[in-house]
Specification:
disordered N terminus, mainly beta, 16-stranded antiparallel barrel
C-alpha cells in the first residue's frame, strides 16, 4: 500500500494525468566487491599486512518518459555519506543498511529545438550530466546538483555524433550564516566536444573549463557527514582546464579497441599556492587503452591506464580508489578485466599500483608507501 501511494504521489508531482501513457523505464544494478590491499591505510606504519573488505553497492531507480518533451529520473542507492562512493562495507553486525536519494532530476527537451537541447534541473549522474572521458577530474560515483544545459546529448545522457556542448551551475555548499560575508560555494562548468569518424576509426575530441567559486566559504564546520574537508580543498581555488579525447576501431567484428587520454591544468593564480609548489603540482594526466567489450555473454574486455595527478591539479572529488583515497599527489597504473558470464551478469578484477607523486608534500615514514589494491567484482544489472 505504501509503495502504491508513493508512486501515485510521484506521478502527481511530475504533472501528468494519464499514468498509463508513461514509459517508466525501471533500472538497477547490484555489485558485490571483495577488496584487498597489502598495507594498512595508515601511511606512518611500517607493518605490511592486508586490509580486506567485503562491500556492496546497490542502485535502483525509475526514469519515466512522460512525453516527447519531458522526462525525469529518481534513483535510490547505498553509501550516500561520501560524495565519491556508493559502497556499503560489511562491518556493523548485520544491521540494516541505509538507502539515500542518489538522483532526482527533471529533463525538459523542447521539440521546437528538435530535441537537441536538454535542460536538466536537480541531481544527476556525473557522466550523464557532463561530457566525461574518464575519472581524472571527477569520480564516477558523483551526482552533481544544480542546473545543466546540454546540446547534442540524448535524454539518456549519451553524446550524438557531431558537436556536443554543456554548461552548468552546481552547488557545493550552502552557507547558512547571516553574520558573515561568506557566500555559497559552487562550480561553473563549460564543455564542448566533437564526435565523428575518419575511415574506419571513430574519435572524440573535447575541452572543458571548471571554475570552483567561493571555496573559502566551505569549511569543515559545515560538514555533518564524511566528505572532503576545507583542508583537502586547500588552496581554495580551482580554475581547471581539461582536454580529452579518444580514438578507436575494431580488431574483429566483436573485439573493438579504444585509446583515450585526459589532461587537466589548474590555472588559478600562483600566489594562491604554498611557496613550495612548483608548476608540476598543477598538472594531471591520464592515458589508457581498452580492448574488447563485455556486452554479451562470453565476451571479455581488458584495460590499462597510467595516471599522474599533482597535489593541486584537480579538486579532491576525483577517483577515490587510487592511492588509498588520497585523491591527488599520486602517480601509478591501473589494470582491469571484465568477463560477461551470463546474461546481465559480469565478473571482473581491477589492480591498482600507486604511490605519492611528491613525498615532500606528505609525512611519510616508510620509503616505500606504494599502494597495492585488488578489487574483485560481481555485477548484476536489471
Amino acid at each position: 500500500m505504501k509503495k502504491t501511494l508513493f508512486f501515485v504521489a510521484l506521478a502527481t508531482a511530475l504533472g501528468f494525468n494519464n499514468a498509463q501513457a508513461v514509459d517508466w523505464n525501471w533500472k538497477g544494478d547490484i555489485r558485490y566487491r571483495y577488496e584487498s590491499g597489502l598495507k594498512d591505510d595508515n601511511v606512518n606504519t611500517t607493518d605490511d599486512h592486508s586490509r580486506d573488505r567485503h562491500r556492496m553497492r546497490v542502485r535502483f531507480g525509475v526514469y519515466p518518459w512522460i512525453n516527447e518533451e519531458l522526462s525525469a529520473g529518481l534513483q535510490l542507492s547505498t553509501g550516500g555519506t561520501e560524495p565519491t562512493s556508493r559502497n556499503e562495507t560489511f562491518d556493523d553486525l548485520f544491521a540494516a543498511d541505509d538507502v539515500y536519494l542518489n538522483e532526482a532530476f527533471i529533463d525538459y527537451h523542447p521539440m521546437f529545438l528538435n530535441g537537441n537541447v536538454n535542460l536538466l534541473l536537480g541531481k544527476r549522474d556525473i557522466a550523464k550530466t557532463l561530457i566525461v572521458e574518464k575519472d581524472l577530474v571527477w569520480d564516477g560515483d558523483l551526482t552533481f546538483e544544480g542546473i545543466t544545459l546540454q546540446y547534442g546529448k540524448d535524454s539518456d545522457g549519451n553524446e550524438k555524433d557531431g558537436l556536443s556542448a554543456v554548461a552548468g551551475y552546481y552547488v557545493i555548499d550552502e552557507n547558512s550564516s547571516v553574520t558573515t560575508l561568506e557566500k555559497d560555494a559552487y562550480i561553473v562548468a563549460a564543455e564542448a566536444s566533437y564526435k565523428g569518424t575518419v575511415s574506419d576509426l571513430g574519435y572524440r575530441l573535447g575541452a572543458g573549463y571548471y571554475d570552483f567559486v567561493n571555496l573559502d566559504g566551505y569549511s569543515a564546520s559545515t560538514t555533518s557527514v564524511t566528505k572532503p574537508t576545507a583542508a583537502q580543498f586547500t588552496p581554495y581555488d580551482f580554475n581547471i582546464v581539461e582536454f580529452f579525447g579518444n580514438v578507436g576501431g575494431d580488431i574483429t567484428e566483436t573485439v573493438p579497441w579504444k585509446l583515450y587520454a585526459q589532461y587537466a591544468f589548474n590555472t588559478a593564480k600562483q600566489s594562491d599556492y604554498p611557496a613550495i609548489l612548483d608548476e608540476d603540482e598543477r598538472n594531471a594526466f591520464l592515458v589508457g587503452l581498452k580492448i574488447g567489450k563485455a556486452k554479451n555473454p562470453g565476451q571479455l574486455e581488458g584495460s590499462a591506464e597510467y595516471v599522474s595527478i599533482g597535489k593541486y591539479a584537480v579538486a579532491p572529488i576525483t577517483d577515490s580508489d587510487r592511492n588509498g583515497g588520497s585523491f591527488t599527489n599520486l602517480e601509478g597504473f591501473k589494470i582491469g578485466a571484465v568477463y560477461h558470464l551470463v546474461q546481465n551478469m559480469t565478473i571482473g578484477a581491477t589492480y591498482y599500483n600507486f604511490d605519492y607523486k611528491n613525498k615532500d608534500l606528505v609525512s611519510v615514514a616508510d620509503s616505500d608507501d606504494r599502494q597495492h589494491l585488488l578489487q574483485a567484482d560481481v555485477v548484476v544489472k536489471f
